[in-house]
Write a structure and sequence with these properties.
alpha+beta, globular, 15 helices, 537 residues, Immunoglobulin-like
Amino acid sequence: MKNYLFALLTVAPLLIQAQENKAVRPLFDKKSIGEIRLTLPAKNWVDALDSMRIYGMGMMKSTATIDGVNYDGVGVRFRGDKSYQLGLKRNPFSIKLNYLDGQQNHQGYTSIKLSSALRDPSLVREVLFYEVAGHYIPASQACYSKLYVNDEYVGVFINIESVDAHFVDSHYGSSGNAFFKAGVDYKPEVPATCKQNIYGSLEYEDNLDCYKGNFEIQSASGWAELQELTRVLNNDPSKIDKILDVDHALWFLALNNAMVNLSSYIGNHSVNYYLYRDDNGRFQIIPWDMNLAFGSYKNTGKGSDLDLKGLQTLDPLLHADNPYKPLISKLLSDPLYKKMYVSHLRQIVYDYFYEGAYEKRAQELQGMIVIPFNDDKNKLYSLDDFQRSLRNTIGKRSKIPGIVELMAKRVRYLKDHPELTVLPPEISEINVQGRGKFENQKLTDFRITAKADRFPLRMYIYYRFDDNSPFSMALMNEEASPNMPSGTKFFTATIDGKTNDAVLTYYLVAENAGSVAFAPVNYFKTPYMVKLSDLNK
C-alpha cells in the first residue's frame, strides 16, 4: 500500500504538469478542425437570436468553450447581411468574448466570427481566398470549426479572424485611429440630399451624415477623415498616396478581380471591406466576407447577372472608366498605378492558378472537412453537391460555378489578355556600393545600381529606414553606358544614410511602355535590406 501511495504521489505531479504543458490548439490552425460550444439561456435560441438580429437588440449573454477552454459572460448574436436568413440554425455567428469582461480573450482574440458559407457548396471559397490574399496584403486568417449550441451539433463553420482592434494593432501597430466597415446592417436615416444606393463606393459627399448610411464606424471618431479620403480620391487624385496605401489598394482590387469576387468593391454594391487609418495618416483597405467569391455572386452593377462565360471572361479592367467606382477609375487613370495593378493581377494568376495550386489546396480543404460536413443535419447542400462543387455548377436557379470550372478557363483568358501579355522589364545586377578596400573615409549614404532590359523607360526605388514607416519613392537616375545592348539600361540612386547604423529597406520598380516589374518579386513580404555598417566593413 505504501508503495502504491508513493507511486501515486510521484506520478500525480507529472500528470498535472503534462496537462498544463499540453499544447493548446491555435485558434486559426489550418491543419485541424476546431470546436466551439455555446450554452445559450433560451430553449428556442434561433427565434431569440432572430429577434435580436432583426431589432438590433445587442447580444445574448452566454458561455462558450473554445477548444476545451471555458469562458463566461460571452455575447452571441447572428451576423451577416446577405448571408443571414430568418429561421435557420445555420446562420453566421458573432461571438464576443469580452462582452462583460473587457479583458477576456482567447489567445489574444476577443471576438470570433463564424461564417455559414452561404451559397458556397464547396465550403472552401473563404478559406482559399483569404489564404491567397494573405500572401500579398494583410488579411484575416480563416480555418474550420465545429459548432455546438446547447450540446446540439449545428455544423462545420468557417472561423474567420475578426477585423478589429487586435487585427489592426497586429498589422499596423495601432488601433485607436479612424476605422470603418463598408456596408451597414441597420441603415440609419440620412438627409434626402445624399446620393442614393452608392454603398461603399467612396464617392464624395458634402454632408458628413451621408457617409453614415454607407459605412459603420468602428472608432470613436473619424467621419471627417473618411470624407477627406473621398475628397482627395475624387477631386485631387494626384495626392492620393498621402492618404491611402495605394499599393495595397491595387492588390485588393487585383485579388477581387482575379478570383471573381463581385460581392466586394468591384461588384454591384461596393461593400465587404474595412478602412483603417494607420499612424502614418494613410488609410489601409482590408478585405472581408468572401463566401461569394469565385463567381457565387454575379452582378457587376452593369446590367443583369453574368453567366458562367461572363464570369470566366470578367474584364481585368472592370470599372476602369466608371466614375461611380473612383477607387478603380481614379487609381487606374494613373499610368504607373495601372501598370502596377496589371502586374499584381498577373502575379496572382501565375503564383496560384496557372499551374493548379489552388485546385490541390481546395481538395485538401474538402478532404479535411468531409466527415463533419456529412454529419451536419443543417447543411444547405447535399454531400453530392459538396463533392461535385469544385468542377460542376451547383443549383438550377443559383447556378454557383464550380471553382475549377470557373478558374481553369479564367486563367487561360487572363493569360492571353492583351493587358497581361505585355512583357515587363527584367531587373538584374542589383548592387549596393560598399567602401573600397583602402578607403579611410566611411560611407554616409547608400548607392544602389541595377540593370533593366526590355526597353525600360524609368526605374523607381521605394525605401524606408523604419518598418513602421511607409515607403518613400524616388526616381532613379539613368546611368550612361555606351556598351549597353539595345533595350537595356543601368540606373542608380543615392539615399542619405542619416545615421552611421542606418538600415535601408527597399525594393525596385522598373517601367517600360506597357508594364512594370518588381524586384524582389515578393517585395511585400521580403524586400531587400542593407546595413550601412556592413558597407563600411
